[in-house]
Amino acid sequence: MASSWFSAGEPILWWSPAPRAVFDPKTFKPAKSLVKFQRKHRYKVSINQATERIIRLCASSRPESETWITQEMQDAYVALANQGRCHSVEVWQEDELIGGLYGVEVGAVFCGESMVSLKTNASKIALWFFAYTL
């Protein structure tokens, strides 16, 4: 485990790097090139249909030594999803999961935790869709 902010056997600490990006869904606008890309490729998007898969995909998209999303963290996010507090947006090409994002809902705030793209622009499309549906 590469995590430098907590060690095995110790409590998982909250980490809040500065600065953090803040998006207002009311004013969020995707880049014109992304709109054009989606019009051409027609990726399908779903919400909360494969949350555990997105969490695991985000963790496995980096070498184990470089991810902060340890097995313990993955299990915690899955538990939050089962409680309705962790949500995901999944991006599909045909029946293949090609990217997405997940995060935690705290009141009226959604804290994005991680994104992943296995194909070009998949995570950007997930963010755009999520902002649009809020």
From TrEMBL:
One of its GO terms (biological process) is protein catabolic process. It catalyses: N-terminal L-lysyl-[protein] + L-leucyl-tRNA(Leu) = N-terminal L-leucyl-L-lysyl-[protein] + tRNA(Leu) + H(+); N-terminal L-arginyl-[protein] + L-leucyl-tRNA(Leu) = N-terminal L-leucyl-L-arginyl-[protein] + tRNA(Leu) + H(+); L-phenylalanyl-tRNA(Phe) + an N-terminal L-alpha-aminoacyl-[protein] = an N-terminal L-phenylalanyl-L-alpha-aminoacyl-[protein] + tRNA(Phe). GO terms for cellular component: cytoplasm. It is found in: Cytoplasm. Keywords: Acyltransferase, Cytoplasm, Transferase. It is an enzyme of class 2 (transferase). InterPro entries: Acyl_CoA_acyltransferase (IPR016181), Leu/Phe-tRNA_Trfase (IPR004616), Leu/Phe-tRNA_Trfase_C (IPR042203). SUPFAM superfamilies: Acyl-CoA N-acyltransferases (Nat). The keyword Cytoplasm applies. Its EC number is 2.3.2.6. GO terms for molecular function: leucyl-tRNA--protein transferase activity. Functions in the N-end rule pathway of protein degradation where it conjugates Leu, Phe and, less efficiently, Met from aminoacyl-tRNAs to the N-termini of proteins containing an N-terminal arginine or lysine. Belongs to the L/F-transferase family. This is Leucyl/phenylalanyl-tRNA--protein transferase. It comes from Vibrio ishigakensis. The lineage of its organism: Bacteria, Pseudomonadati, Pseudomonadota, Gammaproteobacteria, Vibrionales.
